[in-house]
What does this fold into?
Amino acid sequence: MGTRGQNIMNKNTSHINSLENEAIYIMREVAAQFEKPVLLFSGGKDSITLVRLAQKAFYPAKIPFPLMHIDTGHNFPETIEFRDRLVKELGLELIVRNVQDSIDQGKVKEESGKYASRNQLQTTTLLDAIEEFKFDACIGGARRDEEKARAKERIFSVRDDFGQWDEKNQRPELFDMLNGAIELGQNVRVFPISNWTELDVWSYIEKENIEIPSIYFAHTRATFLRDGLIWSADDEVVYREEDEEVVERIVRFRTVGDMSCTAAVLSEAADIKTVVQEIRESTISERGARIDDKRSEAAMEKRKQQGYF
Amino acid sequence: MEVLKIATAGSVDDGKSTLIGRILYDTKSMTTDKLEAIEKTSKQRGYDYLDFSLATDGLVAEREQGITIDVAHIYFSTANKSYIIADTPGHVEYTRNMVTGASTSQASLILIDARKGVIEQTNRHFFINNLLRVKDVVVAINKMDLVDYSEEVYNRIKADFEDLMSKRDYQDQTISFIPVSALKGDNVVNKSDKMPWYTGESILEHLEKLDKSDIFNVGTPRFPVQYVIRPKTEDFHDYRGYAGKVYGGNLSVGDDIVVLPSQTKSKIKDIYFYDEKYDTASRRSSVTITLEDDINVSRGDMIVKEGDLPTIEKQFTANVCWMDSKQLTPGAKYVVQHGVNKVLAKVDAIHHKIHPDYSGIEDNVSGLGMNDIASVSFKLNKPMFFDKFKNHRTNGSFIIIDSQSNSTVGAGFIQ
It folds into this structure.
């Protein structure tokens, strides 16, 4: 590395490079404007992309904030394994807070039945952790193209003491000036890849040769069908009715959330190149495989008002 | 592939969200699951057609009232461009959101209801787009299906709009007129066969040909320092890198530079992007710069080329768009955020209010209310390094922060 004679201008003409430059700018604003930022890391492709962008923003210094994982206890084991390896390789600080602890403390009640998921319960654990560490900025990998309530989100999104999003009273963001001024007790959710689409993230992962957990690629998995979606047959985590038959299928995941709310897609795409190709041709949105958004038309907006990411 | 940012504008019910939905639908950018959701809801409500605004009005309050309250960002791409559309609200009381949407856009789409023609809101939207120096404006005369696709109606509205154009300040703005029906899909993506008298392009055809207009490149590099990188590791023991984004023009290794406000001179030693070194940093790239000399540089300072200095003053006059319900009054103190630099500012005088509907100016104003636009002078607690907005969109603009509420309460464009 480190050859002279290249002109960086060439690096900025393409769509993906201008998004990268914008995200790096946002990362640096976070480090400069806040006392205690944290990067929320789920082990999914979006947060892995954030880590790469943060590396680029602060090179040759280390990323000047820790990562935090709100662990539902229902993660894909591949994700956790990947998380621990990444943190070790980059010498980063990782904080883990468990939804199970919030359940044990009686702060939240586990859902039961067919559509039970710990996805919603994460909010309480997250808000407690923000308070425990006095984080004033939480960087997340949400994108505006994911969902229509997210399309209204700012890059710097102020949350009150209760973590709530006041969607009707958001700060205007002009040009690229980001106003991170907050009161004690408030915090800001920061979304550096707001303007990226799913395809942009995948193209970036391909271009940068970023390693991601194996479940994003085609593999054989014990699954069952429900509501036209394919679910992991892991009886400890995912509720399954007796007549829901377990079949081995070749699948991959487009989004990696809680096992109980993330459906797989049938796919033969075994490497990043074919995955990008598949996304390019897909007619279903990424969140089409997330049952948490299907609960109602306003599902995401409601969760966000309560402090969800 | 290029990216083009577009802001929409138009009065309430002119069909902005419908137009965007139509673009997504006709470019096959809407995924099956999203389309099914729209079909389902449209049917539930007993509509005869698909209500595409359901795709973009993302808040419950918006769907309930059938209006757009906040800016939504919509993404789609064609074979040769990526598009980001900022769908902005049409109501007068949300004018500030329109200013916000237009601030990052290279092109703007102003909708006019063919039945109503040019109305006060049209004037206001055109004024704001001109004030913010948005390079290309497309005037879409919508709902042509409701006026029998009449050429006469189109010509009358076009003539009315051309009257407005004669009053604009930024004369180099390019303006095009397209007759459309967003609901029926005429001249949005596909050319319409209902208006043989119109031989021009559809909206998408027009956008596809737009140059990624270089509105940020004016040949005057400005490098506001965002963050100082000091790794303090063995390999980079004495490294001091200045992280920031290059605005306006390129910076190269060996350039003679001046650091503001200290006016200390030095030379650019290295330009880093991640772990690679480059000869030149182009505008809008987020790089890290090191200097030949060991000088004191911190966040909020600005690196510029020698002989190419901005104005360095403790006061300025700007066109301000006020965005708060609490009035701006002479003598009031605020924080002005200019790029990444913050200064304390006191309102020295409100010179006059500008009616954004082109009906003139108003002297002797005692205060500014929400959505008012006015020429205002500020006095600062320390010098700021700025250019006129017309010469430099980035270094000529700022936001105003209320130090009590911490909210962004206004935006300004330096005159």
